[in-house]
Structures are given as C-alpha cells and as structure tokens.
Design a protein that fits this description.
By secondary structure, this protein is α/β, with parallel strands linked by helices. The chain folds into two domains: about 100 residues, ATPase, nucleotide binding domain (Nucleotidyltransferase, domain 5), CATH 3.30.420; about 80 residues, Nucleotidyltransferase, domain 5. Helices cover about 30% and strands about 30% of the residues. It contains six helices and eleven strands. The strands form two sheets. Strands 6, 7, 8, 9, 10 and 11 form a six-stranded mixed sheet that branches. The protein has a five-stranded mixed sheet with strand order 3-2-1-4-5, sandwiched between helices. A hairpin with a 4-residue loop joins strand 6 and strand 7.
Length: about 210
C-alpha cells in the first residue's frame, strides 16, 4: 500500500493506493495548521479500511514550492514514516501535480502558486515534461512569462488567480485547482521515479 501526501497549500490531501487502485482520498481545505490534521486523518483512513500502518510499502510527498510551513509538516510526516516503517519515499514538485489532471498531462500548460513574498512560483509544461525551470517571478513579471510561452492552460488555485488580478485577456484557459495527493501516485509512475530510503527536503526556489 502506498501513501501520498500534499500539504503545499491550504488544501491538505492524503490518498492511499494499492496496486494502482485508489483506496481512499481525503482533501481538507481550511486555514488550520496541517500539523493538527495529518496524523488524525491518516489514522482515520487506515481504520476505515481495516488496515494498519504495517501495510505501507512506500510513501510519496509534494515537496513544493508553496507554503513553507505546510510543506515542512508534510515532509516531516513522510520522512518519519520512512524511518519508523523502513519504507522508501519519493518527492514531486507541487507544480508538477497541477500539470496532471488525474488521468493525464495537460498539453501546453503553465502552473503557478503564489508565495508570501509577493512572487509567483511558475513553470511551463508540454507533453508531460517540464519545459522551464521552476521560477520565482514577481507579479509584474508573470504576465510577460505567459505572453512569451502562450500556454493552452493556466492552472492554479482560484485564490491565487484572484490575488493576481492581472490576467484578463491573456491566452490560455483558466483552470482552478489545488495540488492533489491523488495525482502524486500517477506522476511518480509517469516520471519513472524510484522511491528510495532518502530524506526529503522542501524545494527552494530563488528569484531570477
């Protein structure tokens, strides 16, 4: 059984998979600290499925960018599971998760998340591959990034679009979405990532 976790935004989600099948998925969208929820939600999922923590064979986590505090909580949880249960783990950028719609990759998409430093974390995707580095752009630079790459889709949480307020008339269909643990399992497999006994760290992005 594989656990997937993303805590990079205020949407906190956990999923459990067995042999490629989704067993359970819980998503909570709230302002409360994820540290108050993650263990209780995980225990609740196991209890409802009649399973124990010993059933875990691997765990995957979103490593950011996003809320630094939220990411640290999710990674601390997964790293601890790896150590206590002796299971391999893998990490994926939360922007990568936004570029995957649950069944496949968006073709030609820019995904982004706002930061507390009045910046935008963004990247361009095409054909399931990240075509740019993950960038930290100012809010004034981001529209130029979109105009340069002309994506078919622009994907981010609704509140992040609302905070920008400068994207009217730019190319690309707007899709409101949070990074989801439900996509993590598939992105790890699509990318051919091999879970390892490693220590996951948050993804740090510097401005250009």
């Amino acid at each position: 059984m594989i656990l997937t976790v993303d805590t990079s935004t205020r949407s906190f989600s956990l999923s459990l998979f067995e042999k490629g099948e989704l067993l359970a998925h819980i998503e909570l969208i709230r302002e409360l600290a994820h540290s108050q929820q993650i263990v209780r939600v995980f225990e609740f999922m196991l209890e409802r499925l009649g399973l124990t923590i010993t059933s875990l064979t691997a765990a995957y986590a979103g490593i950011g960018p996003g809320s630094f505090t939220g990411i640290r909580i999710g990674l601390s949880f997964v790293n601890t599971l790896s150590q206590v249960q002796s299971i391999p783990i893998a990490g994926v950028s939360s922007l990568d998760l936004l570029a995957f719609d649950g069944t496949g990759w968006y073709n030609s998409a820019v995904t982004f998340l706002r930061s507390r430093k009045h910046e935008v974390y963004a990247a361009l995707y095409s054909g399931g591959e990240r075509k740019t580095d993950i960038l930290a752009l100012t809010c004034d630079e981001f529209p130029s990034f979109l105009e340069k790459h002309l994506p078919q889709y622009i994907i981010a949480p609704e509140e992040d679009f609302r905070d920008l307020g400068k994207l009217e008339g730019l190319p690309g269909k707007v899709i409101h979405a949070f990074p989801s643990s439900r996509s993590l399992y598939h992105v790890v497999r699509e990318r051919g990532l091999a879970p390892q006994r490693i220590y996951l760290k948050p993804l740090y992005v510097r401005g250009i």
